[in-house]
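Protocol step 4 of 5: obtain the predicted structure for the target chain.
Materials: sequence only (see below). No template structures provided, no constraints applied. The aim of this step is simply to have a reference model before the mutagenesis design in step 5. Sequence pasted as it appears in the construct record:
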Amino acid sequence: MDATDEYASLWKHAVEKFEKNHGQKLPQYTEATRDRTPDDILTEAGDKFTKFRDNGKILRSAVKPCMDSVSRLSEVLGQTLQLVYPPAQAITAAVVVFIKVVMIFITFSHLTIIALMRVHSKGCEQVSTNYDAMEDLLDNYQHILERTETLARLKPSDNLKRLIVDILVQFLNVVDLAVNAVKSGRRRAFFKSLVFKKDTKIEKALGEVEKLLRREEASVNLAILTKTHAVQESTERHYSAVSSTTIHRWLNPINQIEKYEEVLRQRSEGTCQWFLEDQTFSNWKEKPNSRLWFHGKMGAGKTMIRYVKTLAIKKKIGLKNFSTTAIENLSRLPGLVAYYYFQFDQKETLSEHSLIRSLLAQLKTINSTPLKTLHKALDGATQPSISQLQKALEQIVSSAKCPIYIVIDALDEYVQRVDHVYPERDQPLLSLLGETVSWNAPNLHMMVTSRDEPGIEKVIKKAGFMDIKVSTPSIDKDIALYVKAELSKDKWRQWDLSLREKVQERMLKKGNGMFRLVVSHFELLEQAGTDEDVEWFVENLPDTLRQT
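Step 4 output (C-alpha cells):
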C-alpha cells in the first residue's frame, strides 16, 4: 500500500466509525449542505432556537471559524492527499450533527432550568459553564485546523502528510465524542457533571491531539531548517557564480596564461636550478609578509628564472611542467600564485591598473567580498580608481589563510614606460610596492624581477626587500645547459659534429651572462643556409642585445 492509499484508508475508517456511532451517513448531510456556506448552515440552525439567541451566537462564533478552516483545508487536501471523502464535506456534516444535538441539548436544558430555578439558583450558571466548555473545545481546534491548513499548502513531506491526516482523524474523533457527551448529558442530570471538562474520553482525545501537535511542530521545524538551508545554499551558489563571472568581466584583466605558456616552452630542462637552491629564496618562502627582488643586467634571463620559480610554487595547483629539483624544493608548500608580465612591446600591459586588475582576478577566489562590495558601491558600471583597487587587493591578501605568492616580472619595463610621465617619487606602482610592507598580510610573499635600475633599487631597498642578484657564473651554467639542449635538436643535426662543437664554444664565450643574447644568436643561425654561412655567423656573433 502506497502512502496515498494509506492516508485514504485512515480517513475512510474515521468517517465510517462516526457514521456507525450515530447511525447517519455523512454524505447525506454533505449533499444537503454542499452549496451552502458554513455561515448559512449555522444561521439556519441558530434561528430555530430564538430563546437562546445570545448563547447561540456565542456557540456559532466558535463553530463557524472551524467550519471555515475545514472548508479551506479541503481545497488543499483534495489535491495534496487525495482522500476518499473530502474533509470539508465529511467534517462539515459531522459538525452539523454536533450542532443539532447541541441545540436539542439546549432545548432540554431550557426546560430543565425552568424546573431547577424553582429548587436551585445555580441552574443557569451550569448551562453557561457547558457553553464555555463547548466554546473552549472549538476554539482549541480552530487553532489546530489553521495550522494544518498552512502545512497542507506547503507541499509537505510524507511524514507531515501522515500527521495532517492523523490530526483530521482526531478532530473527527473529538466531534464524535462531543456528540456522545452531549447525548449522555441530556439523558442524565446534566448539572451533576460538566459535559466536556469532566469527560475523560474527550480529555484523552485532546491529549492525543496535543501529542500530534508536538510531533508536527518538531517535524515542521526540521523541515523548515532543512529547506531554508537548501535554499540558502542554492542562492549562495547562484549568487557566487553570477558574481564571479560579472566581476571578472568588470575587472577585464589581461590574460597572463598565454605569456606563461610562451615562456614555459622556451625553458630548457635543468636551467635555473641554482636559483631554487639559493638560501635567500628559501628564506623568502618561509618568512611572513616577505619581499624579494631578483635583478640583473639586461638579457640575463630573469623571465626564464622567474618562470621556473613560479612553476615550482604552483606545483600544488596542478602545474607539472617543472624540474625535479623544483618539485622536491616546494612539494610541501601549499599556496596560490598570482603573476603578471610587463611587456614593453604591449603597451596595454604597462599600467598599474592592468597589473592590479589581473592580480585581483587571479586572487578573488580567496575572498570575493571586497570586490563584490566595490562592484555594488559603483553599481557595476563605474570603473574603480587605482586606490580602490589597491584597497581591495590589500583586503584580499590580508584575509588569506594560505600562502599567497605574487610575482611581478620585468618591473623595469613598466618604469621605462611611465618615466616620462611621472617623476620617480610619484610612480604609482613603485609607491604601491613600498606601501605593501605596512599591510597586515602574514601569508603574502611578493617577488619582483627587473634589470638594475636606480629608481627601482631605491624603492626596493627602502621597503626592505630581500634580493638576489644574477651572477654571470650562475647564468653561464644555465646557458651551457640551454646551448647543449638546443644543439641536440634535429634542425641542427645537419651540421658536422665539429661545427656544432665550435658553435657551442663560441656561444658560451659570447653569452657573457646574458641568456637572451644566446637565444638571439640561435635565431640568427637559423638564417644560415650552408656550413660556410654558419662559420661566418659564428665568427661574427653580436656581443650585445642591441647589436642583434
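Step 4 remarks: The mean pLDDT is 66. The longest strand covers residues 444-451.
Proceed to step 5.
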